[in-house]
Amino acid sequence: MTTTEGKPVRCEDVAALLPGAVDANEPVDFPVQRHIEGCLRCQAELARYRRMLRGLQLLRTQYLEPAPGLLAATLVAVTEASERRAVRSILTGKRLAYAGAIAGAVAAAGGTAAALLVARAKRRTITV
Amino acid sequence: MATTHDDDRHDVLAELVAAAQRGEREAFDELVRRTYVDVYTLAVRLTANEEDASDVVQEAYLRAWKGIRRFRGDAQFSTWMYRITANAASTMTQRRRRQQATHIEDVAEPVEMRLEHQPEGAAESAAALEELSIAVSELPPKLRAIIVLKDVYGLTHEDIAEELGISVAAAKVRLHRGRKKLRDLLYDDHGRQARAV
């Protein structure tokens, strides 16, 4: 049995491919499949990888016990973060209100000053 | 039957997510209560350190609370939490690696995984699974993350690559290397079990 490049398939070649080929993550050439079908050593190695993957999938259903205070600590951390966000939001709102008020006052003062200047200029023109 | 139970659970979680997205803190707290053991388990498997895992859990839920409105519901809430946890654990692992350079004596030993319960009729013995857990925790952090996220939790290469900040091709290469390394930790050169089970 040979690879697509015409070289004979060796067990070492198969061993290098198995981590990716075990769940069809990386497809293998037909000669490699043929080698595995006829090689007890490679079949055993494939079986090891399959057992390992099966075990890893089973780990998904094994839960580890957290430290007793973790839930409470997590909820407190989320509460504190929420409060910080709320305070920040209020401060941002207040800052915007202050900025708006200042801008309004400046605009009003500017408008008044401009009106006074225009009125004074008109008076001068009449006097002259 | 398990499917019906799972469907019910997903429905309840979906309702809680919708309420949390409307800003109801109690709903989010309930989501935390219902999922934190699962998230903690993933965090321990990713960090191989119980203390770091607790920090990762808190960080993951803080990020989830901040981003809950962005959760579109096209994936399950648990999958979304896995992705956030993977990202938080990756940040933690990188921070630890920087600390290790200066404080090597503080490096935690691989955690011995304590299993809370075993499903009945499991194909593998409890002892074999515990050995597998320990072997996973002994993998280098980058390889461990890929093995846990892909082979244990079934995340896609695309999701894993995005959360770990690597390319899909790099994720595939790491998966290949991780499986080979794990196999070498479990079996000797002759294929015999390398660990007493």
Explained architecture:
The complex is a heterodimer of chains A (128) and B (197). With 128 residues, chain A is mainly alpha-helical. Chain A is elongated. The mean pLDDT of chain A is 85. Among the domains of chain A are: 49 residues, no CATH class; 33 residues. In chain A, helix 1 packs parallel to helix 3 and helix 2 crosses helix 3. Helices cover 77% and strands 0% of the residues of chain A. With 197 residues, chain B is mainly alpha-helical. Chain B has two domains: 111 residues, Rna Polymerase Sigma Factor, Chain: A, CATH 1.10.1740.10; 76 residues, Winged helix-like DNA-binding domain superfamily/Winged helix DNA-binding domain (Arc Repressor Mutant, subunit A, Orthogonal Bundle). Chain B contains eight helices and no strands. The longest helix of chain B has 24 residues. About 11% of the residues of chain B have low confidence. Classes of the chains: A mainly alpha (128), B mainly alpha (197). Chains A and B meet through helix 3 and helix 4 of A and helix 2, helix 3, helix 5, helix 6 and helix 8 of B.
